[in-house]
Amino acid sequence: MNKKLLIVPFVLASSAAWAQSQSLAGQVLDDAGRPVIGATVVEKGTNNGIGTDANGRFVLRARTAQPRLVVSALGYTTQEVAASGASIAVRLATSSTALEGVQVVGSRSLNRSVTDSPSPVDIIDVRQVTAKTGQLDVNQLLQFVAPSFNSNRQTGADGADHVDPASLRGLGPDQTLVLVNGKRWHQSSLVNLFGSRGRGNTGTDLNTIPAASIERIEILRDGASAQYGSDAIAGVINIVLKTSTKELTANVNYGAYQAKYRFDDQKLDGGNFNANLNYGLPVGKGGFVNATVDFNQREHTQRANVPAPDGIQRRQYGDPRVFNTSVYVNSKLPLSEKVYAYVFGGFNARRGEAYAYTRFPTIGKDSLGHDIPNPRSNATLYPDGFDPVITSNVFDGHGVTGVRGTFGPWDMDLSNGFGSNRFHYGLNNSLNATLGVKSPTIFDAGGFQLQQDVVDLNVSRNFKTVAQGLNLAFGGELRREWYQIFAGEPASYTNYQPGSGIPGGSQGFPGFQPRNELHASRNNVGVYADAELDVTKAFLVEGAVRYEHYSDFGSNVTGKLATRLKLSDNFALRGTLSTGFRAPSLAQINFNTVFTNVVGGVPIDVLIDRNNGPVTRAVGIPPLTRELSRSASVGFTGRIGSVLSFTVDGYYIHIQDRIVLTGAFPNDDNIIGPTLTALNVGQAQFFANAASTSTFGLDAVVANTLGVGTGRLTTTLAANLNRLNVTSVQTTPLLAGKEDIFFGQREQAFVKASAPPYKINLTGDYNLGRFGALLRFVYFGPVDLYDYTPELNHYHPRLTTDVALSYALTNQLSLSVGSSNVFNKYPDFFNPQATETGGAWDPVQMGSNGRFLFAKLQARF
């Protein structure tokens, strides 16, 4: 058969589709005439859809001759309309059985949209973002979309290689509260000890939730402890799971890196494969069950052969190998016309493999020029030395069940949620040097687990006749948390030749010992009251107060005031004042271990004693207590014409008694040196309320939509300016005069590196019929770090460029191809023996893997 004939039908189909395509523009409003944000507009019978913007507007290029649109939104009855006329106006009626309303994080008022909010809120349509970009997990997706959000993959950072720390507005990972469907989610059991951000912090592992299960992500960029409790100092991330029914979506994605500085620079590595399915079934009137299955496999990247300026670097350096499997469910089950039950949650099973620092066969030469054997290696087992592999088995699960309904004029929501994160370490390709040639090479190193149980009651009522509307809300929360450390096998921590000078335990990561084991728990009770008053249609005031009591450190009261003033239909001012707090995590209070750090190429065993442990008490460090914050924001939002919108918000956050991981005290210290020598460790670090910080910043977003030719171009400019200062360091009397070690220049620089001083994102998204193109520039500001030398490591600003092209092969099938960091930009290079990780750079800015090439095939039926 003539192959040219096979092309003809494809060309004709494409031409017909081009001819039939038409631009559909419109706005989705509620029954009161207010815009519905994040509504889904889908051309019936196709995979062609879009979400509404902050003003409820949408522009969609139709693919059929007589298109019909299906418009849906949380809390509203789904509506199907014929697409006709220059502008399509859709009015969605509030569903009598969908009682959630259009509640946006930051407000407890039903039908309070993001444009009405006195606090800055970003709404990210995950389906639209993932359709065209190369990022496959939630952390990396937000890193390149939301300027105030920062997350870097860590390398050479033990457990942090397997769990990416993330932050808002340059604060710690544990200073951002994560909700799913408005319910508090559990944190990871991991305490970050290494890396450029999150040191000494715990945080929520966002990557346990597959992007395929998410409808949208709401980011409240404002202190919200009075509304949601502990951890909301920097803001709140609310992940809203999918609610769609009678629709099957399937995605297959693959990408790989092409490193610029490899000796074999044409070879691809770090292959990343992802496949997922999502389907929803209707249940009764207005109910549903929506389920997602997701699998992701990410391979190692090798960046150790980068030509570093000087010094010997490790032989294996790069991203870890990771296998992820996730299953998530979201459901709503009507019990009556005004009451329904709901169940949502899921689990994630992760297996990771990350290389530790190389154990070379020798450590130098003696005075006669002979090689000195490395006491941490064994020439018989590993003639050329070895590269230990730290393995992880992480199981993460969370489930929430509840009942919600209207009882008279009151809306009530009662729920119970339980979450657990278990992190189990292992070692491959390692040894216990004190066992010599009899040593095993595979070890069980133990681990830790964090669990959380939350009972939550929320009650609200709207008084429409009070001024222009008054919304009252109150409720309470009972939370219980558990934390445990469990030991590894004896060979992973035992020294079988005490006094020999040979370090015991598994190389790369010594196992947890029986003396590290513990079971800790605590209780928390919180109550809150919240009121929002529309004094006039233009003037809104809001106030909230919250009381919480923790069984391990006491009580705390926080409050918040906020206001919004509309000067016109197209311009509004807004501002907030709030106090906040963060309770020390059980992991920070109880974590203790001996781990191996590599300083200037020399391995050193480091003790981290628990907060109430014997060494901690010996140096006078008091029990950890809460962090306290004061924050303020002021800004404006507006629109010029019907195509351009903008928001600008400045903020200030002061945190007192911030919990940090101190610097390392050596075993020759005159206060604790003898104790460390007796324990056979070289250094010690502690958790302490050691510092106070102040953060100033500005968030700005400008979005514009224009017709270009017969297509539509949407342009977004988003920027975050951020500056953090350490205003004071509080040491203990016994360590007075040692502030430079306790929390000195090096540790302060790592805290400041949680965010660059500025990050700017410019994105252009063009759609024409079945074709789409995306071009994105992200400019990362400079980062300064002090590693294991007195010299400053100054990472200069970098601009990365992403490109993507998409085409709808059929009405149900589309293909996207593209590249992230297409020009192969890297951070500055430094001496590997001076960096935290032992590589040619620290994990900063946009990452260090180089150009990423990807392809995505998406089906929607």
UniProtKB/TrEMBL annotation:
Signal peptide: 1-19
Matching PANTHER family: PTHR47234, SECRETIN_TONB SHORT N-TERMINAL DOMAIN-CONTAINING PROTEIN
Domain TonB-dependent receptor plug: 114-236
InterPro entries: Beta-barrel_TonB, Beta-barrel_TonB_sf, CarboxyPept-like_regulatory, Plug_dom, Plug_dom_sf, TonB-dep_rcpt-like
Ranges of residues in domain TonB-dependent receptor-like beta-barrel: 351-821
Keyword Methyltransferase carried by entry: no
Membrane topology term: Multi-pass membrane protein
Record family assignment: Belongs to the TonB-dependent receptor family.
Subcellular location: Cell outer membrane
Top-level taxon: Bacteria
Descriptive protein name: Iron complex outermembrane receptor protein
Pfam families listed in its UniProt record: CarbopepD_reg_2, Plug, TonB_dep_Rec_b-barrel
Keywords: Cell outer membrane, Membrane, Receptor, Signal, TonB box, Transmembrane, Transmembrane beta strand, Transport
